[in-house]
Amino acid sequence: MALWSGFTIRAGGDLVYFSGDTGYGDGSLFKAIRQRVGAPTVALLPIGAFAPRWFMADQHIDPEEAVMIFKDMEARHAIGIHWGVIPLSDEGRDEPRDALVHALAKYQIDPGCFVAAEPGYVWELPQSDLTSPTLPHPGLVAITQKG
Q1: Contacts of 115 (CB under 8 A, 6+ apart)
Q2: What's the pTM?
Q3: Distance between CA atoms of 10 and 49, rounded to whole angstroms?
C-alpha cells in the first residue's frame, strides 16, 4: 500500500499523469486526483500483468480498468504501459493490447486517444493539443526498453 506510487508532471499548461502500479477499487481515487490536479493531457496507464484477477486486482489494473481511469480522469490521451516485455502474470504477451482494443470499443472511445505502447514507442502530442508550445520538445513522450 505504500511501496508504489503515481505522480504528475506539469509543464506549462500540460499535465502528464503516471499511475504507477495500482488497483482500481471503486474508482474514487482517480476522480479525486482529477479534482485535485486537473485533467491530464496524457495519462500513462498500466495495461498488463493483470491475470489472474483474484490475485492481481489490488496491485494491477486490467485494460478495461485503465480505460475507466482514462474516463474518470478526463484525460485527453493515454498510453498503455507495463505490458509485453517481461512475463509477470498469467495473460499472454499480446492479451493486454487486444483487451485494450475491446475496452475502447465497449466505451466508444477513439482508439487513437489511447494507444498500447510497444517497447521503443515514441508518442508526440498532436500540434492541435499543445498548450505549451515554448517547451524545448513540447508534447514528446518516449517509452523505451533497454537490454
Answers
A1: 78, 79, 80, 121, 123
A2: 0.84
A3: 28
Q: Distance (Å, rounded) from C-alpha 122 to C-alpha 124?
A: 7
Report d(CA 12, CA 17) in Å as an integer.
14
How far apart CA 18 and CA 40 sit, in angstroms, is: 10
- Contact between 6 and 18 under an 8 Å Cβ cutoff? The reply is yes
CA distances from 14 to 17, 75, 77, 83, 108 (A): 10, 11, 12, 25, 25
pLDDT tens digits, residue range 61-74? 999 999 999 999 99
33 alpha-carbon distance from chain centroid: 14
Tens of pLDDT along 122-142? 887 776 665 554 444 444 454
- Long-range contacts of 140-146, Cβ-Cβ distance < 8 Å, separation of 24 or more: 141/16, 141/42, 141/44, 141/79, 143/79, 143/81, 143/117, 143/119, 144/119, 144/120, 145/85, 145/119, 145/120
